From TrEMBL:
Similarity comment: Belongs to the PMEI family.
InterPro entries membership: Invertase/methylesterase_inhib (IPR035513), PCW_Enzyme_Inhibitor (IPR052421), Pectinesterase_inhib_dom (IPR006501)
Organism: Gossypium tomentosum
SMART domains (alphabetical): PMEI (SM00856)
Protein name in UniProt: Pectinesterase inhibitor domain-containing protein
Length: 206
């Protein structure tokens, strides 16, 4: 397909997906496959208007990921003339996006912890989330080192662990039978991590 037609397709896809729940599946280190769902609250939708001059090479890279819109929206704001539009560079930008969104999630978790809650379990759930988020932050340099030396096993392991940390956060709310106030950030984190794995496995690791 001609790459110039990708943007409108992505936007239509994003509009459709924003009206439904986002579901993500991961095969953890164990032999059992687990599925996790992140429900998007109705009426709370975020739209991102893509610029008209998106680099065709970036469109091509993001078009090969599971979540092309999220790939574009998390990379475009951080690109400048010094960033080469090649898979390994975009992968590093996505790792930065994981780091930044995780810090944002920590801030949100602290914010919700300080507010009065109808559930006494909410602060406990958020504390677990913060611990898992901190583990994600600590992994950034190990991931960048793995990219630099081409250590596929280390990179895949670190990103998979990051995915599990996000799921562990959401599991706390599920077990407590309360609504997660940070479900959208967690959903986005899972999508960025998934895209990062795809970019590395399908485009960088050759």
């Amino acid at each position: 397909m001609d790459m110039k037609h990708l943007i409108p397709i992505f936007v239509i896809f994003f509009f459709f997906m924003s009206t439904t729940s986002a579901s993500v599946a991961l095969a953890p280190s164990s032999s059992n496959t687990q599925s996790f769902s992140f429900s998007k609250p109705p009426g709370d939708q975020t739209f991102f208007i893509l610029p008209n001059d998106v680099d065709p090479k970036l469109q091509s890279i993001c078009g090969e990921t599971d979540y092309p819109i999220e790939c574009l929206t998390t990379t475009i704001p951080f690109l400048d003339e010094n960033v080469a539009i090649i898979p390994v560079s975009i992968l590093k930008v996505e790792i930065d996006a994981i780091h930044n969104k995780t810090k944002e999630a920590i801030d949100k978790a602290y914010e919700f912890s300080m507010n009065p809650s109808t559930s006494r379990l909410l602060p406990l759930c958020l504390k677990t989330c913060i611990n898992n988020y901190n583990a994600i932050l600590e992994s950034k340099q190990r991931i960048l080192d793995a990219i630099s030396i081409g250590d596929a096993n280390e990179l895949s392991m670190e990103l998979s662990h990051n995915m599990e940390h996000v799921f562990a956060c959401e599991d706390e709310f599920k077990e407590a039978k309360i609504e997660s106030p940070i479900v959208e950030l967690n959903s986005l984190l899972v999508k960025i991590i998934t895209n990062s794995l795809t970019i590395y496995v399908d485009m960088v690791k050759v």
